[in-house]
Write a structure and sequence with these properties.
By secondary structure, this protein is an alpha+beta fold. The chain is 45% helix and 9% strand. The strands form three sheets. The chain has a four-stranded antiparallel beta sheet. A two-stranded parallel ribbon has the order 1-2. Strands 3-4 form a two-stranded antiparallel sheet. The N and C termini lie far apart (112 Å).
């Protein structure tokens, strides 16, 4: 009896279905996973649950991206990118630490930012801020650039810069600083101060009309009774060697010292009695009420005299006259000149000179300007 065509079609369909079923039973679901072999297939089936196996297959994750963590109880496959980013940062001593921090980071970021979680993790890890994020509730991603600046001032496990940062930015805002200047100012301050001196600077209640100097390392910085630098200390102070001085341990900033040494060597050709009477004065050597308000704290000011000449008579010497007419060539200006007391709030003083650099000193000398007038003209 001949088979009808539809009978034949039905038989073929049944045979194909059975064959597909048998093949599917033997089908290796991990065949699309890059790097799969018999050994790690056993590990995957042993250590990954059904959800993770499905995640592995759907996302076709290469075995080498997570094989180092696979046997650890804390490992969770969807977080493998966090683990690898932490491992690449080379800040952790063990895989257990990496998994612990990675899990905390992924959990919190996923809760807060959902699908954008890893992009935020990348920011944190690349800048070394992941532990600060996990340990400080008020971490603000808008302040990351400031955290990066502040972090080196603090001990490794001290994350209080997160709280301090908000305090400092609030201070700047209350002081009338434009927000677009915040980053430049904080960059300057973190270069000039340590953790404690910066905190003192930005938490001290100042008298009305007195303002913080945000660039104390600038060679034309003005410091006086209304311009405050806190406990600033220049980082490049060097001994004033090879210059006649009243004490062995006298220091200046390197740029001021080198300029003074050049001037001193030229002075010696006609006068061997030049004497450096004062240079940098540290906060510890000042009266408390003077700390932060004295230019000698900058390491740029000098007080000079002449051996064998009384302090009060120095203004009448040839050396004093030479200094007033030539010091600008080396970058120094007479800090408190005649007939300028109403501007400097200081009477004439032939002894005190201030290093401001040759360009500024020349302009001030040629235009008969004090430092206050020069800064006001900029």
């Amino acid at each position: 009896m001949k088979l009808k065509i539809w009978h034949l079609f039905l038989i073929i369909t049944l045979l194909f279905g059975c064959s597909f079923y048998v093949v599917n039973l033997r089908f290796d679901k991990f065949y699309r996973v890059n790097g799969i072999n018999n050994d790690n297939r056993v590990l995957i089936e042993k250590y990954l649950d059904e959800e993770e196996q499905t995640y592995l297959i759907d996302n076709q994750i290469s075995i080498d991206l997570f094989i180092d963590y696979l046997t650890y109880d804390a490992f969770y496959l969807p977080y493998y990118q966090y683990y690898n980013a932490l491992a690449d940062a080379s800040r952790y001593d063990s895989i257990s630490e990496i998994l612990d921090v990675g899990n905390q980071l992924a959990d919190r970021l996923t809760y807060l930012y959902s699908s954008k979680a890893y992009s935020y993790a990348d920011i944190l890890i690349s800048d070394g801020l992941e532990l600060a994020f996990l340990n400080q509730e008020n971490f603000n991603f808008d302040y990351v650039d400031y955290y990066i600046l502040l972090k080196p001032l603090y001990d490794e496990d001290d994350y209080s810069y997160i709280i301090d940062c908000e305090t400092y930015l609030t201070y700047l805002s209350n002081d009338g600083v434009d927000e677009d200047q915040f980053l430049d100012i904080m960059t300057s301050l973190t270069n000039c101060y340590n953790k404690d001196t910066l905190n003192e600077l930005l938490t001290t209640l100042l008298d009305d009309g007195t303002h913080i100097v945000y660039t104390p390392d600038d060679i034309t910085t003005l410091v006086d009774s209304t311009h405050y630098i806190g406990q600033y200390e220049a980082h490049d102070l060097i001994l004033c060697q090879d210059i006649s001085r009243v004490r062995y341990t006298m220091y200046l900033r390197s740029d001021a010292y080198n300029a003074l040494l050049d001037m001193y060597n030229d002075i010696k050709t006609f006068n061997e009695n030049f004497l450096l009477r004062e240079a940098y004065i540290s906060c510890d050597s000042m009266d408390d009420e003077d700390v932060g308000y004295d230019e000698f704290q900058l390491g740029l000011s000098i007080n000079v005299g002449e051996i064998g000449i009384s302090y009060s008579d120095f203004a009448n010497t040839d050396l004093s006259t030479w200094l007033e007419n030539n010091a600008y060539k080396y970058g120094f200006v007479l800090r408190y000149p005649k007939q300028k007391a109403s501007i400097t709030n200081h009477s004439y003083d032939a002894h005190t000179y201030r290093y401001v650099g040759i360009e500024a000193a020349t302009y001030m000398y040629e235009n008969d300007l004090t430092l206050e007038e020069y800064l006001g003209s900029l």
